[in-house]
Known about the structure:
Blueprint: H1 8-36, H2 42-45, H3 47-67, H4 75-104, H5 110-139, H6 143-166, H7 175-188, H8 194-200, H9 216-223
Helix pairs in contact: 1-4, 3-4, 3-6, 4-5
Keywords: Membrane, Transmembrane, Transmembrane helix
GO cellular component, one term: membrane
Family: Belongs to the RUS1 family.
Amino acid sequence: xxxxxxxxxxxxxxIRLLQRQxxxxxxxxxxxxxxxxxxxxxxxxxxxxxxxxxDILNDLAFFxxxxxxxxxxxxxxxxxxxxxxxxxxxxxxxxxxxxxxQHQARRNNLADxxxxxxxxxxxxxxxxxxVSLIMLPLVSGKHVLIWFLFMVFTTVHLYxxxxxxxxxxxxxxxxxxxxxxxxxxLSSEVIPSVGECNKAEPLxxxxxxxxxxxxxxxxxxxxxx
Length: 225
């Protein structure tokens, strides 16, 4: 129901403007958080994790969009939440795409790889549009079938992206890969290969706290002995 004194068009424009404001604020704060509270740009050296996080949040945004008609009293909250998630997806997805494209440009052909990646994405979007136009009359009004197809496609999408991220063999060292190499050398004096290191690299957790030297308390206790 429209607010008293406002038409439905005014209320719709107000929601769009507020969504846009939320998107701008979240985008700026997300970039600030990632660059401020991490060593360097985490979107760069931990691009595999953030690539998968972007895919998960994107599917979560679609889930909220599908759920919002059933929550008529919370439609505004759902709309802002999905917009918030898509802001994070836009920043994380765009940044990690650049890092992955740079990794794939093996012959210093970054522009060529980027253009082919963009063309491939365009072709995928066109194919998805055609399939959507075919499926839309078949699933219209069938809520159970819509949710079933959404769950199936989301599962396939996330699994495919997980396998794609796992197939990347980064030849540079980040904190996780460097920690694995150091631990392997200290325990068995063996340095794992690039493939082994990337295969065993955890995506969503680190290796705990890191210490450089000893704590000041231990140093003072040692001097008192």
